[in-house]
Design goal:
This protein is an alpha/beta fold. It has two domains: about 230 residues, Alpha-Beta Complex (Spore Coat Polysaccharide Biosynthesis Protein SpsA, Chain A), CATH 3.90.550.10; about 150 residues, Rossmann fold (3-Layer(aba) Sandwich), CATH 3.40.50. It has twelve helices and 19 strands. A hairpin with a 2-residue loop joins strand 10 and strand 11. It is elongated. It starts with a strand and ends in an 8-residue tail after the last strand. The relative contact order is 0.12.
Length: about 400
């Protein structure tokens, strides 16, 4: 899945407090807003980010380059503003996209994006909605029997209801050849075609903020990072598996071939006594290359965890990546979760409230160490297969 982010707006209403950068690059306590948004979207393990840029575009291009946390970044550059519809259509045409998740680069919505995408894979259009106390500030959305049936203009009265969160699952079939270069996605496609499209929707129940005005931008600076990162109070020891927990034999997948590293149980028991959670993060390219199946991996994992438990040690969690660019379909692709990318570590941190700077990582390959550094772990230890520190 490609992710298209509209990041070309002028941000006129925000220029009193955000100068010299485009609105999506507004600073949120040391981090550009767009970076926080993209970091969250990385958990979808997208094929690439397509950034639609125009105003002060070099500040975005220079910041992200061609790769963000292991995910390719490409740019759909507008020589002049094309409007939201024109920007999306140009991105689809330029990179020959069949479908994409489309978002605004100045809005953060906490939602189950994976569910949204999976539920609407075959739809020409699906829309993310959000329930707010003052829907008329944005324009109220009317729904009926699981479909959107009308968009209502902004009104002066305060009224709760559903609004368009600016997040779409879009298929290229939505764009006809007759469309002009410049047009609004909302005003020229979405609203007038509602009677025919009647798109399905999903309601995001969690946090929502649009930084388009100074008051909401101030709110984002005050609370967004705590919303994203939560209360990270736990420390963890992150461990690679093969060569750290068990002896490296190459594509281990059979219980009878599993030999644990000397002293690993006592070491982990000591670490647990110091208050660290034990989290395994392991690349499993053997799955991608057809050496064994995911079921083989899971059976071995169950056995290994039970052996730890029998020695008085509980593994908190294990994360694995079955993808490899030289593998067999459907595993033959790059992945945010494959080390040296930090995806497995960052997901573990999110799910277990891990304080990454004060955690540890042990690995036997440079890719393990690189993943730890990219995730923000300050203490990363490289060992060889005999267990000695290099």
């Amino acid at each position: 899945m490609n992710i298209v982010i509209l990041a070309g707006g002028f941000g006129t209403r925000l220029q009193s407090v955000v100068r010299d950068v485009p609105k999506p690059m507004a600073d949120i306590n040391g981090t550009p807003f767009l970076e926080l948004l993209m970091q969250e979207l990385c958990f979808l393990d997208p094929e690439r980010f397509v950034l639609c840029v125009s105003y002060l575009k070099d500040s975005i291009k220079n910041h992200f380059g061609d790769n963000f946390l292991g995910i390719p970044v490409v740019y759909s550059e507008e020589n002049e503003p094309l409007g939201t519809g024109g920007a999306i259509k140009q991105a689809f045409d330029l990179f020959n996209l069949s479908d994409a998740l489309v978002l605004n680069g100045d809005t953060y919505v906490a939602a189950d994006y994976a569910k949204f995408i999976n539920q609407h894979q075959n739809d020409k259009l699906a829309v993310m909605l959000k329930y707010v106390d003052d829907a008329n500030r944005y324009g109220r959305v009317q729904t009926e029997n699981g479909r959107i049936v009308a968009f209502h203009e902004k009104e002066q009265i305060t009224q709760p209801g559903l609004i368009n969160a600016g997040i779409y699952k879009v298929n290229r079939g939505l764009f006809s050849a007759a469309l002009p270069a410049k047009f609004s996605f909302e005003k020229d496609i979405l609203e007038p075609q509602i009677p025919n499209l009647r798109p399905q929707y999903m309601v995001a129940d969690d946090y929502f903020i649009d930084i388009g005005v100074p008051t909401s931008y101030a709110t984002a600076k005050r609370e967004l990072k705590s919303v994203i990162y939560g209360n990270a109070v736990n420390r963890a020891l992150f461990m690679d598996r093969d060569g750290v927990i068990n002896q490296e034999i190459g594509y281990l997948h059979k219980i009878r071939d599993c030999k644990f590293m000397p002293g690993i149980f006592d070491f982990c028991k000591t670490v647990k006594q110091f208050g660290y959670k034990l989290i395994v993060v392991t690349n499993q390219a053997g799955i991608a290359k057809g050496k064994y199946t995911e079921q083989d991996y899971k059976l071995l994992t169950e056995y290994m965890h039970s052996e730890f438990y029998n020695h008085g040690v509980e593994i908190t969690a294990e994360y694995y990546c079955p993808y490899h660019i030289d593998g067999l379909p459907p595993y033959n692709r790059n992945s945010f979760y494959r080390k040296p990318n930090p995806g497995m570590i960052l997901r573990a941190a999110r799910e277990h409230n891990i304080d990454l700077p004060n955690s540890l990582l042990i690995g036997d390959k440079e890719t393990d160490i690189m993943a730890g550094i990219r995730a923000g772990i300050k203490q990363n230890v490289l060992i060889n297969n005999t267990g000695k520190t290099l």
